[in-house]
Specification:
It is built from 8 helices and no strands. The chain has helices at about 1-15, 15-25, 30-35, 45-50, 60, 70-75, 80-90, 95-125.
């Protein structure tokens, strides 16, 4: 049942197995096993990763009858709707939004790596201090 629902949602979105696996951060072969019901007990973490890019949730994948209805008003306030409308009116596509999101995520990752390396080098510098005490 889980596999059929994932496959159905994936096909409705127009995603290949490779695309969904990339978006979800799971291996293509593991996703294929799930879809073909060769893997009947994926972890909740994996199911959550798969459900997100499909605009679904774990409960639906487990067999709840209907997808939850998401109301735009619950997700976006007026300012967000205005920003998105302006961007679309100026010619931005869904692909452009995805590319922008990926760029921001990549920059945040690079900054976190830089902060970690700065912290590590500072840590190394402080650990190399030698204090000498000389008695007369």
């Amino acid at each position: 049942m889980i596999g059929e629902r994932i496959k159905s949602l994936r096909e409705k979105k127009g995603y290949s197995i490779t695309k969904l696996a990339d978006l979800a951060g799971v291996s293509k072969s593991y996703l294929s096993y799930i879809e073909r019901n060769m893997q009947n007990n994926p972890s909740l973490q994996v199911m959550a990763k798969i459900a997100a890019p499909l605009d679904s949730n774990i409960e639906y994948l487990l067999g709840e009858e209907h997808l939850p209805k998401i109301h735009e008003d619950e997700l976006l306030d007026e300012e967000w709707r205005s920003i998105i409308k302006d961007a679309v009116d100026e010619g931005m596509s869904k692909g452009d939004f995805q590319a922008l999101k990926d760029l921001i995520r990549s920059n945040m990752w690079k900054e976190s790596i830089a902060e970690t390396s700065v912290y590590s080098s500072e840590k190394k510098k402080t650990s190399n201090i030698i204090i000498l005490h000389i008695d007369n």
